[in-house]
Specification:
Length: about 100
């Protein structure tokens, strides 16, 4: 995390002047408040799901068995891509299937 020195020390224009100054309790309090704001803002950001999911992840999301997932593939209900021996499912396709 890189903090702007102006956020911590608004009265200081030149950051080089800070090299020889003592840290005060007020400076620590400012830093603590700034750090808390950064942590809160980073945890409030919405995490987007991965665009491609493996079979086990899809089964956990839908709470279905491997056989049921296979039936969804065979019926064409759920589109998939096979890369090597791994089957991937598009998250958007899963959402669309659930909305039907």
């Amino acid at each position: 995390m890189n903090f702007n020195h102006k956020a911590l020390f608004p009265e200081t224009d030149n950051i080089e002047l800070l090299n020889h100054q003592v840290v005060t309790k007020r400076d620590l309090l400012n830093f603590g408040n700034l750090l808390l704001r950064e942590i809160k803002s980073s945890t409030n950001q919405e995490t987007l799901p991965k665009p491609w999911l493996k079979s086990a992840e899809v089964r956990n999301i839908l709470k279905i068995s491997p056989g049921t997932l296979q039936n969804l593939r065979i019926n064409g209900t759920l589109k998939y891509k096979r890369i090597g021996g791994i089957i991937y499912y598009n998250y958007e396709d899963i959402v669309k299937m659930l909305e039907k």
